[in-house]
Amino acid sequence: MNKGLLTFLLCIGTVLIADAAEPPQRIVSINLCTDQLLLMLGEPGQIASVSHLALEPNSSYMARQAKAYPVNHGKAEEILALKPDLIVAGAYTNRSLVGLLKKLGYRVERFPLASDIQDIRDNIRLMARLIDKKAQGELLVADMDSRLEQVKQQRPT
Questions:
Q1: pLDDT digits over 20-29, tens only?
Q2: Could you read off the pLDDT of 55-66 as tens digits, one per residue?
Q3: 98-105 mean pLDDT
Q4: What domains can you pick out in the chain, each with its CATH number?
Q5: 43-82 CB burial, b ≥16 within 10 A, e <16
Q6: Alpha helices in the chain (DSSP H)
């Protein structure tokens, strides 16, 4: 391999590594569960859009906070117009949409379905890691665990 090409590849690799270290600045959520996690952990300037389901008070714990952000209906045209650097989706998000977004070069992270408390902890930590909010994620997990312990203590035996 010639020296110029090697230098070029090393420079490109350095740029890619530097870019990968930057936390995402335009995050789009296309799933109710990821909406909730993003709204709890993300900085307002990081959140480009949440799903329309985030506005539903009967299913969204964060409905009031979600009103501050543009909503999407999980359509490719909407998502592309938002120019996201991270798209968060659920396990059952439309596979064709996820495949198209990935094929177009977008970073899409799918969150597994949570079926127990440990899965919820894991998903909180996953979102926190993706958006560079690990400490806040651990605080959220600790708060949840503390509340669960309080409920357990109050439960009649």
A1: 568 999 999 9
A2: 999 999 999 999
A3: 97
A4: 24-149 (3.40.50.1980)
A5: eeebbbbbbbbbbeeeebebbebbeebebbebeeebbeee
A6: 3-21, 32-41, 63-66, 76-81, 95-103, 117-130, 134-154
